[in-house]
Amino acid sequence: MRPLVGVTCDLWGEPGSEREGVSRAYAEAVWQAGGLPLLVTAETAAAELIQRLDALLVTGGGDVAPERFGQSPHPKLGRVTPERDEAELGLVAEAYRQDLPTLGVCRGIQVMAVALGGGLIQDLASIEPAAGPRHDQHGRQPRDEVSHQVRLEPSSRLARLLGTHQVAVNSFHHQVVQEPIPARLALAGRSEDGWVEALEASDRRFFFGVQWHPEHLWQKDLAAARLFGGLVEAASSR
Fold it and tell me: How far is CA 52 from CA 8, 94, 112, 114, in A?
């Protein structure tokens, strides 16, 4: 029987006509790795749902509201969705507490950092202008093409899982995890220009966050396929 992997949804639309959903690429990546994807909406009770899931995939999307990590909104802050923040922050905190295998992608790594006490840089280009377009390829590059390298920490569990110390990644983000990293997480990888690209929790069976989008790369990239394979394998032993 395939393990049940909760896949968080985005939320958008005008009041009264809101929509919840997610890119099909996430569900396809989970399915091909042997998991059964289940879409998780913002209307969820974290503690109850985590007990029923075998793994959790926290997906990409808009920005986390800066009030969640003690900052005022930056002028370049993008779309925020308080209901989604509430749901995902609760899910990640509970997943960590219950040692549920968890993978965070793009916004997902940021949610993981904030849920465990960290913060975010709200707009990378405002701090380093050259880094902005390098990391945010929206509208300039297909999602299945790579744009830069990530150097993994040689001693990290992520490097062992992916079987390499360097991965070529796609990049579609304007925010990054702020340092110092929360104490319950460890740095697993940086971009070539020094920004946080991967986190892990060494005291949990499978708890990884990546700033890139492996759901668009797994068909031609072994490291991306191993990431989803590792999630499903961990879910299978829950």
Answer: 15, 12, 20, 24
Reported as type and span, the H/E element at residue 105 is: strand 102-105
CATH for 114: 3.40.50.880
The CA distance from 203 to 200, in Å, is 9
Q: Assess contact for 59 and 40: CB atoms under 8 A.
A: no
Contact 170, 235 (CB under 8 A): no
The span from the CA of 28 to the CA of 143, in Å, is 15
Tokens of 129: 């202008």
When divided into structural domains, the chain yields a total of 1
Stretches where the chain sits below pLDDT 50 are none
Residues 92-141: pLDDT tens digits?
Answer: 999 999 999 999 999 999 999 999 999 999 999 999 998 888 898 887 88
Domain assignment of residue 129, given as a range = 4-236
| Phi/psi at 63 (5° precision) | -85, 150
- What 3-state class would DSSP assign to 166? strand
**CA distances in angstroms from 96 to 5, 22, 223, listed in the order given:** 15, 23, 24
Provide the annotated active-site residues. 106, 213, 215
Q: What is the pTM of this model?
A: 0.97
Question: What's the CA gap between 40 and 21, in Å, rounded?
Answer: 9
Query: Rg of the Cα trace of the chain?
Result: 16
Tell me which amino acid residue 39 is. L
